[in-house]
């Protein structure tokens, strides 16, 4: 074991101690006091988030390259909490993000900064979250497409920015943006699957680049990408399930990689992988029976065009084959994200949902607003966003379909803790996703 991992072990004992002390205290409390401790501090979180957004307002003059991310983390968290910001603030966000848009496509971290795939993903998701004609039409889709094409590498993977790093994050942000904007095509997906496959490690999770260590953030990115390009059956899903199942710690939260500490942001990155697996039961069952990626298993989500009323037309004959799309029966790539959430979930999530919710509410919540990585850390917008996103996925993972609200026993604490539902592939709230899907549905 390396010195770094030995140190991690000591930290692990400290975190476990703190968490288990909290659990012990919690266990001894009377019922009503318990309920108060796992109550989502909705108003406090909204206050913290709204203040954070206003601090960036009106000129968004903070000097860093993270501002589209801050907009997304804050706006998405507010949206998960079922609220929205004042029109004036929305207008400022739209104006600011428009100034981050590069004349040659894509969004930089601030006005005049180099366009970057991560900030492009954040800006697009933030604008979808704001919603409405002004916000959605501010995205120059033709130019975004040009930017994505420029970032595409001969290997099939993507670069984060001109001369930037090539990794699985870049593949996900490029494909997610293209899919949600309805500009995904065969050129963009060419050989992306080969690159992602080369990053699935012996542990079963996915690493950032070939030869690196499997990690929750990259596992989510690689897995979601494979679904969006309709090649998910090429992954060893049984191996991936095995890896992610062992990432839930005794504290209830997830760790990002083997022998590391639990951290609330993995509630989304690892919890998200479970939400995706839940809708791939047919492929998973087949792989579990044979243990290994299947060559001839058809992906249910690929087939079927969407009809004009938005429902999926069942077309079980339209299947893709290993290594690419079936030329005789082309798949509508841009419908995959839509069909994915429309199909009913037929399998329960395969992790301890109650334990995860307990970790988020009891250990990661700052009672003064905002959420943090773990006890002893400070709240921040990144952890607030991904803890709430993971909490939402966990609460809704019991529902068969989107029209059936979760049963009370799916929601830890009072039922008022229930958050809005998020799209497990793009991580934008479903109502806003549907609005964007309709808006960008025009060719
Ligand atoms: C859409 C998008 C841009 C996604 C990003 C995905 C993501 C969270 C990647 C993780 C990157 C990484 C290796 C963190 C390790 O940090 P660490 O060593 O501090 O954390 P650890 O101890 O938990 O592994
Ligand atoms: Zn974290």
UniProtKB/TrEMBL annotation:
Catalytic activity of the protein: L-cysteinyl-[protein] + (2E,6E)-farnesyl diphosphate = S-(2E,6E)-farnesyl-L-cysteinyl-[protein] + diphosphate
Any coiled-coil regions, as ranges: none
MF (Gene Ontology): protein farnesyltransferase activity; zinc ion binding
GO cellular component entries: protein farnesyltransferase complex
Cofactors that this protein relies on: Zn(2+)
Note describing how the cofactor binds: Binds 1 zinc ion per subunit.
Highest taxon, organism lineage: Eukaryota
Keywords: Metal-binding, Prenyltransferase, Repeat, Transferase, Zinc
Entries under SUPFAM superfamilies matching the protein: Terpenoid cyclases/Protein prenyltransferases
Protein EC: 2.5.1.58
Pfam families: Prenyltrans
Job of this protein: Catalyzes the transfer of a farnesyl moiety from farnesyl diphosphate to a cysteine at the fourth position from the C-terminus of several proteins. The beta subunit is responsible for peptide-binding.
Family of this protein: Belongs to the protein prenyltransferase subunit beta family.
Oligomeric form and interacting partners: Heterodimer of FTA and FTB.
Name listed for the protein in its UniProt record: Protein farnesyltransferase subunit beta
């Amino acid at each position: 074991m390396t010195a770094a991992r030995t140190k991690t072990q000591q930290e692990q004992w400290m975190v476990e101690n703190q968490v288990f002390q909290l659990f012990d205290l919690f266990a001894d409390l009377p019922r009503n006091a318990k309920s108060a401790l796992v109550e989502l501090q909705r108003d406090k979180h909204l206050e913290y988030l709204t203040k954070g957004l206003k601090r960036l307002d009106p000129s968004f003059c903070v000097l860093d390259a993270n501002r589209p991310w801050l907009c997304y983390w804050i706006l998405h968290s507010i949206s998960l909490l079922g609220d929205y910001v004042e029109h004036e603030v929305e207008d400022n966000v739209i104006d600011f993000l428009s100034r981050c848009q590069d004349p040659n496509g894509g969004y930089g971290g601030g006005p005049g900064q180099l366009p970057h795939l991560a900030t492009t993903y954040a800006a697009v998701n933030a604008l979808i979250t704001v919603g409405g004609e002004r916000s959605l039409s501010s995205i120059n889709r033709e130019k975004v497409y040009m930017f994505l094409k420029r970032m595409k590498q001969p290997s099939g993977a993507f670069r984060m920015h001109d001369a930037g790093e090539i990794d699985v994050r870049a593949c996900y942000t490029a494909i997610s943006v293209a899919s949600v904007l309805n500009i995904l095509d065969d050129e963009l997906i060419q050989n992306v699957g080969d690159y992602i496959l080369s990053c699935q490690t012996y542990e079963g999770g996915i690493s950032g680049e070939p030869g690196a260590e499997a990690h929750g953030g990259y596992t989510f990115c690689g897995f979601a990408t494979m679904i969006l390009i309709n090649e998910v059956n090429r992954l060893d899903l049984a191996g991936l399930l095995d890896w992610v199942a062992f990432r839930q710690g005794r504290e209830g939260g997830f760790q990002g990689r083997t022998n590391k500490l639990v951290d609330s942001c993995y509630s989304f990155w690892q919890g998200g992988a479970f939400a995706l697996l839940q809708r791939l039961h047919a492929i998973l069952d087949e792989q579990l029976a044979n243990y290994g990626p299947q060559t001839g298993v058809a992906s249910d989500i690929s087939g079927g065009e969407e009809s004009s009323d938005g429902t999926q037309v069942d077309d079980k004959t339209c299947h893709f084959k290993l290594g690419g799309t079936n030329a005789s029966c082309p798949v509508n790539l841009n419908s995959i994200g839509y069909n994915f959430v429309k199909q009913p979930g037929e399998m329960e999530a395969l992790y301890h949902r109650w334990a995860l919710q307990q970790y988020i509410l009891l250990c990661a919540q700052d009672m003064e607003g905002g959420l943090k990585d773990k006890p002893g850390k400070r709240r921040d917008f990144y952890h607030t966003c991904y803890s709430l996103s993971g909490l939402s996925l966990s609460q809704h993972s019991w529902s068969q379909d989107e029209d059936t609200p979760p049963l009370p026993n799916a929601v830890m604490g009072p039922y008022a803790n229930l958050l809005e539902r998020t799209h497990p592939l793009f991580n934008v709230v479903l109502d806003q996703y549907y609005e964007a899907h309709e808006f960008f549905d025009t060719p």
